[in-house]
Design a protein that fits this description.
With about 350 residues, the protein is mainly β. It has helices at about 80-85, 315-320; strands at about 5-20, 25-40, 45-60, 65-75, 85-90, 110-115, 125-140, 145-165, 170-175, 175-180, 180-205, 205-220, 235-245, 250-260, 265-270, 275-285, 290-295, 305-310, 330-335. The strands form three sheets. The chain has a 15-stranded mixed beta sheet that branches. Strands 9-10 form a two-stranded antiparallel sheet. A two-stranded antiparallel ribbon has the order 15-18. It is globular.
Amino acid sequence: MTTPGGRRTVSGGFVQWKANYTSMLEVVGALRYDNYKLESGTTSSSGDRLSPKITVGLMPLAVLTPYVSYAEGYRAPSITETLVNGPHAGATPQDSFFRCPSGTPGPGADSTFCFVPNPNLRPEIGKTKEIGFNLKKNDVWVAGDSIRGKFNFFRNDITDYIDQVAFGTPVVVPGFGSFFPFLQYQNVARARIHGFEAEAMYDAQLWFLGVAGTLQEGKNLQTNFGLYSVPPQKLTTTAGLRFLENTLVVSVMWTSAKANRDIPVTYTPATSYDLVNLYLQYKPTPDLTLNLSAENIFNTYYRPYAIPVGSAGDTQNDVKWASAGPGMVFKGGLKYHFGGT
């Protein structure tokens, strides 16, 4: 166990106001309150904040709605980020070369690096600017079809961004290289995540086709190194058919992701990957819905996130496999509606 016991209480609430001026302008304002308290046997921390949001949309046409938005967010540190402590267990003789220098592990406990707690970890505060437009049109080519879309550029400037940091005097493992002995969640004074998002869906009633993509990057503005936790660039395509008067829907989803390699040298990048999922929904009666899915049908091995470098010899197979995404997964679900409409 690397995370000791603790209690984290999080609460929040928000209010939203929406107004339309004639048919040309829409304004949405919101205010959110967040509060947290984290306690363990040795430390405690707490905090709260009011975070505003405002969105202004122009509606000169019925099809396109350009908009600009500004929103602030507040994320409290988790128990693991604050309290994680002790050795990361090795799974191979090479990984067991290093013993935790802190002396906290029990006899015989070996590890590749040591987690260090950070009781002074502060919450993240993000300020997101966004500009884009929404697309909405019915009866595009034939009666009853529709198209929906959203396209936007965004930039999130974050203070006290919570990031994993490897540090300490490098430990040399003969024949396998060197690695940093300590890993701790720390606050990055200034970080920035920015990019472009787009999604569009065409629905012809008997069939539908959608595409969604995200391009983004993140930087530690103090070091100009990339952030290891930024998700990969991703493109997702969805296609489906409807049968039996729309009671049976069969669809396939293909996701192609390109790993983020602009990360600190103390991390091994995630893998690029392609996943294919199949979905089936059957609704024999208005009240009964059956859902079946087969995800990652080609059983592709992939790691969706970057992981700490274990050594120059790259022997941390335990971490690599523990960090992998799921293989082929089958799911089923049944939903029944009781009562009136």
